[in-house]
Design a protein that fits this description.
Layout lengths: L2 H12 L6 H7 L3 H6 L9 H22 L4 H12 L1 H10 L10 H4 L3 H23 L1 H11 L4 H7 L5 H13 L4 E8 L6 E8 L2 E8 L2 H17 L2
Antiparallel strand pairs: 1-2, 2-3
Length: 232
């Protein structure tokens, strides 16, 4: 993809004209791409990601502090829900980041989980590039449009809570029962296992999930069960 395409992306999606377009191109450059293009490409996006992560946290924290008088613990949970990988990778996908990513051939064939992480990292890197090229206000506008605009939905759905904690709250209020997690299956060698966990409420399977460890599988199972309770 040529530099003109990135300039168009900046105007259409970020509503700015980059003074240093190389910053934006670097924001989309994964480490793996650099390994395959050492002659032509000198930098990947990890330093910009480091910067963008800090800007993102500051903008979100400032917004929550100014608009909500809630205790620190609640504000921290809300902030975590807004800046977690799932939230920012979803925002990156919505803004069409994927087609602009510069990846190695191997990474292009990666798993959905790996791709979500790459999208999240590039999102933070773009924020870092925006901050350096256009300043704090431009970065804050983009974060407000792409991330903070989802906050009302996060509050309404309760997704800001840890899925297991939220499920326990719903299960106890609706069925007077506490969720119980059971490993239904585990597969693969010790260094690369996949666990399938089911969550039962009042003896009934309400959701199941898989993951590389029991904790992540439990989280997925809880999310699946939440869909059941939210649709009752």
């Amino acid at each position: 993809m040529n530099s003109e395409a990135y300039a168009v992306f900046a105007k259409d999606k970020l509503h700015v004209t980059f003074k240093n377009l190389d910053l934006l191109i670097t924001a989309f450059t994964h480490r793996s791409y650099l390994n395959e293009h050492k002659r032509n490409v000198k930098e990947h996006n990890e330093r910009l990601e480091f910067l963008g992560d800090a800007v993102l946290e500051l903008v979100v924290t400032e917004y929550l502090y100014k608009n909500y008088p809630d205790p620190e613990g609640i504000l921290t949970n809300w902030r975590s829900s807004l800046v977690r990988t799932e939230s920012i990778s979803a925002a990156a996908a919505k803004y069409g980041f994927e087609e602009y990513l510069r990846l190695s051939r191997g990474e292009k064939r990666g798993t959905d989980r790996a791709r979500a992480q790459i999208l999240a990292n590039s999102f933070e890197a773009v924020i870092g590039a925006l901050y350096l090229d256009q300043g704090y206000e431009a970065a804050a506008v983009f974060i407000t449009e792409s991330i903070l605009s989802t906050f009302a939905q996060i509050l309404e759905s309760g997704s800001w809570m840890d899925p297991k904690s939220y499920l326990q709250e719903l299960a106890q209020s609706q069925e007077a029962a506490t969720p119980i997690y059971k490993v239904m299956n585990e597969d693969g060698p010790d260094h690369d296992k996949t666990f399938i966990v089911g969550v039962y409420v009042a003896g009934v399977l309400r959701g199941q999930g898989d993951g590389p460890n029991k904790q992540s599988a439990q989280q997925k199972a809880a999310k699946a069960a939440l869909v059941y309770y939210q649709n009752r």
